[in-house]
Design brief:
454 residues; single chain; eight-stranded mixed beta sheet; 12 helices; 2 domains; 31% helix; Aminopeptidase
Length: 454
């Protein structure tokens, strides 16, 4: 090929290539729910007007899909609202920081906070700091969260966010910054809730992106004093409105205890809550419909789109649901709240008397590439209270979480991150499971002392 022909071919290839990748477009009930909720409502912080609009949207959607006894069940809760958030190192080097406030953070003083930054490589190092040693200073807590398929790293590394601010306050800190509880390398900080222990004063609390945390660690390694300017104006607001949305597919035998499927409707405000947890609500809802495609199921299946999961107990959707529905008989509960990647693992908390039922579930999921793993199933936050109170059987359908904490609680939690094929695989697995358990006669009992969503 001569140079002119080669140049023409390359030019045609350039013009034929798209400037950017075309977003994936899905179809079906699950995709319609994720797309609709993220497009028509968007971010849904607990207690916000957007969460209220989402409840109305969800009620209309469930009714449109043919669910019965659809209801909004409101409750009051403690919530939090975001404000201005900026940070920069001022010494020994001037560096801007990508930061976001944590839920339950309180505002910095008017005009911001200027203070010494004290580096701690781990949460244990912060715990070991002498009492009063952080008076007037800002603590920075590092860690090293890494991706895992089952997301197990979120437990220990998430404790930096959940309890670090309370510990820093006890040491006298004026504020705290943490490395985001996330596994990405993008300059997107991860938000999330923190909790202050009873009697501990709330302090301004924020998280920086992983690249910015790396920067702080490098500066600290040089051994020079570090100074920071910090402005966080987000603040809690009590007695906020929230609520759950429920709907049912009545079974052939309404006297049998029902199957409960949980997800949560609220989301953080940085993204649009596509993977956390519009996908979960889409999966359980579409699966319930798909499971009864060949005829009505024996047991009633109820979906719970819970409010205020992100700000959590003591007053969240799980607690209100368990209180309100304490007199109703539930047999088993399941939750989808780990994104939309493919399901690969099955765990069961079933009594030995239900061994045959467990074997049927394993057989139904084996052709779909889902493998049984020993150990208890735990459910999740939105169904934890009812599992505990009624001692329910639990099934966990474990999704691949390798990349979940790249997106979790960040601006990147958006619809384009949802793979339509993986989303449908979730629906297929859930539907196959429901066709077994919702058609099971007799008692379905959990293994006493195992699981329970704790």
């Amino acid at each position: 090929m001569n140079h002119k022909i080669l140049a023409a071919a390359l030019g045609a290839a350039v013009f034929a290539s798209p400037v950017c990748a075309t977003p994936q477009q899905g179809s079906g009930v699950a995709w319609d729910i994720v797309e609709g909720l993220t497009t028509e409502i968007g971010p849904r912080p607990a207690g916000s007007p957007a969460e209220a609009r989402a409840r109305e949207w969800s009620k209309a959607k469930l009714e449109e899909l043919g669910f019965r006894n659809v209801a909004i069940e409101t409750f009051r809760t403690d919530a939090w609202t975001r404000g201005e958030e900026t940070a920069r190192l001022t010494s020994p080097y001037v560096q801007p920081l990508a930061i976001t406030a944590l839920g339950n953070s309180v505002p910095t003083p008017e005009g911001g906070l200027k203070a010494e930054l004290v580096y701690f490589p781990t949460l244990d190092a912060l715990k070991a700091a002498p009492e009063g040693s952080l008076e007037g200073k800002v603590a920075f807590v590092d860690h090293a969260m890494r991706p895992t398929q089952d997301g197990s790293g979120y437990g220990p590394y998430g404790d930096v966010r959940r309890s670090g601010p309370s510990i820093a306050s006890k040491k006298g800190a004026a504020a705290i910054i943490i490395r985001s509880a996330g596994t990405d390398s993008h300059r997107n900080p991860h938000t999330g809730v923190t909790k202050f222990a009873e009697g501990v004063s709330a302090i301004p609390s924020g998280a920086v992106s992983n690249p910015d945390a790396d920067l702080i660690a490098r500066v600290a390694a040089r051994g020079k004093p570090i100074a920071i300017e910090l402005t966080l104006t987000g603040k809690p607001f009590p007695d906020a409105p929230s609520g759950n949305v429920i709907g049912e597919l009545p079974g052939r035998d309404p006297s049998l205890p029902m199957i409960l499927l949980g997800c949560h409707l609220d989301s953080w405000d940085l993204g649009t809550g596509a993977i956390d947890d519009a996908s979960g609500c889409a999966i359980i809802t579409a699966a319930a419909l798909q499971a009864q495609r060949d005829g009505k199921l024996l047991r009633t299946v109820r979906v719970l789109w819970a409010g205020n999961e992100e700000m959590g107990p003591p007053i969240g959707g799980a607690q209100d649901y368990a209180r309100r529905h304490a007199a109703e008989a539930h047999a088993l509960a399941m939750e989808s709240d780990f994104g939309a990647d493919r399901i690969w693992a099955l765990r069961l908390s079933l009594d030995e008397a239900n061994a045959a039922l467990g074997d049927k579930i394993k057989a139904a999921l084996w052709p779909l590439g889902v493998v049984y793993h020993p150990g208890p199933a735990h459910g999740g936050a939105d169904i934890s209270a009812i599992i505990r109170d009624q001692k329910l059987a639990v099934i966990d359908l474990g999704q691949d979480g390798t990349h979940y904490f790249d997106l979790h609680h960040t601006p990147d939690d958006t619809l384009d991150k949802v793979d339509p094929d993986a989303l449908q695989q979730n629906v297929d697995v859930w539907a196959a499971t429901l066709k077994v358990i919702a058609n099971a006669p007799g008692e379905i009992a959990r293994v006493e002392g195992e699981g329970g969503g704790e």
